[in-house]
Design a protein that fits this description.
The chain has about 220 residues and is α/β, with parallel strands linked by helices. About 30% of the residues lie in helices and about 20% in strands. The protein contains 5 helices and 8 strands, in the order βββαβαβαββαβα. α1 packs parallel to α5 and α2 (about 90-105) crosses α3. The two termini are about 15 Å apart.
């Protein structure tokens, strides 16, 4: 019988960001060991209540932890205890890049899973070109709202999870956009799921967990 996964307790951390210290939380399922991969998850829009405490962000990080990866959630500049102020995505991209560098150095591993939800999905997708993650997860990417210009397809396994009742991100627009890539990302649509996946977080976790399980071979 497979043992029940017990989530690691979150521990506070501070990452040196381009605009000052960034508030973060790390969760390590096997502290004291060097992991084969670590994870970074980016939160939704700072101007609309987005933070590292968002339930979707928690859920995606939890799936990474279940696959053995320690994770870091963090607040973009100007959110919570992070220094600086909102910078329309430009500075937030710099924040994400700094956190990825920090995560690799902190855990001593090169392989990194990168993820984001909504605004955070747009930041993660843009960051992927420089970060070169081993896998990318974008949940409800804001195509047509924040993602309005052509984006280079990251050369790694890429999962998109989209609710088909999303009131902020149009599922048909995401579907068309995903289909335009020469190597299409994997798109999973959750029927009846809204933007924040109310009541559907378990299914979201299962989709991300299955995708990450393929990357680890178990």
């Amino acid at each position: 019988m497979k043992p029940i996964f017990r989530p690691p307790a979150p521990r506070p951390a501070t990452v040196a960001g381009p605009a000052g210290p960034l508030e973060a939380r790390i969760e390590d399922p096997a502290p004291g060991t060097v992991p084969s991969v670590c994870g970074v998850v980016c939160h939704p829009h700072p101007l609309y209540g987005g933070s590292m405490q968002n339930k979707v962000v928690h859920t995606v990080a939890r799936a990474m932890q279940e696959r053995g990866a320690p994770t870091v959630r963090f607040n973009f500049r100007g959110v919570g205890g992070s220094a600086g102020q909102y910078d329309a995505g430009r500075g937030e991209l710099e924040d994400a890049l700094a956190v990825c560098v920090w995560a690799r150095a902190n855990w001593g591993c090169e392989a990194l899973w990168l993820a984001g939800f909504s605004f955070g999905a747009a930041v993660a997708l843009e960051a992927a070109a420089a970060v070169k993650p081993s896998a990318l997860v974008t949940v409800a990417p804001p195509v047509g709202r924040i993602i309005v210009s052509p984006v280079a397809r990251p050369p790694c396994p890429w999962l998109i999870v989209q609710g088909d009742r999303d009131e902020l991100v149009d599922v048909a627009t995401v579907r068309r956009w995903a289909g335009e890539f020469e190597v299409q990302p994997r798109l999973v649509e959750l029927p009846q799921a809204e933007h924040f996946f109310h009541g559907r977080l378990g299914e979201l976790r299962a989709v991300v967990l299955a995708f990450l399980s393929e990357q680890t071979g178990n």
